[in-house]
Amino acid sequence: MKSLDSHIETVLWTPDQITSRVSDLATEISADLSHLTDPPVLVGVATGAFLFLADLARHIRLPVAVDFIRAESYGSGTESNGCPKVSSDLKLDVNGRHVVLVEDIVDTGSTVSRLIEYLESKGASSVSVATFLDKPSRRKVQFELLGNGKFYRGFECPDHFVVGYGMDFAELYRNLPYVGVLKPEHYKCQSP
Ligand code: IMP
Ligand code: MG
Q1: Of these residues, 55, 67, 89, 107, which one is catalytic?
Q2: How far apart are CA 68 and CA 54, in angstroms?
């Protein structure tokens, strides 16, 4: 197999840029959470948020619980099917708790919108969203945060389908330590 790096056309954010931005975000989130009496719950959206959640959580120096949820909206292509479903539930009870939903990327907004509704139905007292990337130019669903939740984003992403730092195309490239755009031929060919 060829190296994954050879599939990348452009690197948008390097590992150093990512580390620095995630650490700043964690500082901001920590400051906003420091007044809480009960530990908030960081809920990572699997699988894409696994690296971002790990890095963010390591920089938050407050007691937090960690859990994962899964919402399926993508198959192996690059377009959302528009109606994501919760396909893997939380282990923790979030009733009465402050939740920070941790996402890799907010694109059309339908996944976070669905997950905020879901967390509300489970009794969360507030829901913030921390997304590593945000593509506001692609938004179709405007979502409201719950309670006094806030929206945090690492970087604004141009309208490209990106991979790396947790994000995949056809379940590959999640392990790249940077974020980049694939060479066009690799958006068609699904084996490395
Ligand atoms: P949304 O529901 O359209 O906001 O899409 C959210 C989900 O789609 C994200 O959590 C990602 O898993 C996936 N997604 C959206 N854009 C990209 C991308 O550029 N690269 C990889 N995954 C993406
Ligand atoms: Mg995702």
Answers
A1: 107
A2: 12
Question: Can you read off the two tokens belonging to residue 153?
Answer: 């984003």
Domains and CATH numbers, the chain: 16-73+88-157 (3.40.50.2020)
Q: What is the Å distance from ligand 2's center to 96 Cα?
A: 25
pLDDT at 72: 86
> CA-to-CA distance for 104 and 49, rounded, in angstroms?
5
How much distance in Å is there from the Cα of 67 to the middle of ligand 2? Answer: 15
- CA 88, distance to chain mean position in Å, is 16
Using CB atoms within 10 A of its CB, is residue 142 exposed (0-12), middle (13-18) or buried (19+)?
exposed
Q: What is the mean pLDDT of each run of 10 residues along the chain (192 residues)?
A: 92 98 98 95 97 98 97 67 84 97 96 96 98 96 95 97 97 97 82 50
